[in-house]
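Re: your question about L-2,4-diaminobutyric acid acetyltransferase

S., sorry for the slow reply, the queue was backed up all week. Below is exactly what I fed in.
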Amino acid sequence: MTPLTTDRTTTTPRTTPPTIADGAELWRIARGSGELDLNSPYSYLLWCRDFAGTTTVARDASGRPIGYVTGYLRPDDPETLFVWQIAVEGSHRGSGVAGTLLDALSAQVATEHGINRIEATVTPGNLASDRLFRSFARRHGAEVTQEVLFPAAAFPAAGHESEVLYRIGPLGPPAS
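Result:
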């Protein structure tokens, strides 16, 4: 795992499946991200219950959630994990938590379900997510392709950027 630095102390973030009790914290982290489309608190509770097998939470030394990645297996392509959201609490951004989460979730789901590809959507202005997914692809010796999945005009409210689909695969083991 990637070291996590907090207050001059280096620890390894622990990643675990979510519990229903984590739902409110995941909502809080998403709300604080400034990048994500915020879902209702209810949806994060459901996600922790119904998609716990394709979700991972990073925890600090006290066990408090500091980041998460949610995903699901594509119904029409069960070898593809679609990453729905990935967020890290502001004080922990830039310390490798997001990469650790993505690596942990992909390894877990690959072991349990045999995935060979990850998909995610990223808005053109979200440079941090672009870097995260490209770095993940390099670590796993995978190619990245991109295409607009949902153009801005598809969204009911004005001001939403297009969502660009990133396809990453085929996945290999992470490089040491």
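The CA atoms of residues 42 and 61 lie 27 Å apart. Residues 1-10 have pLDDT under 50 and may be disordered.

Happy to talk it through on Thursday.
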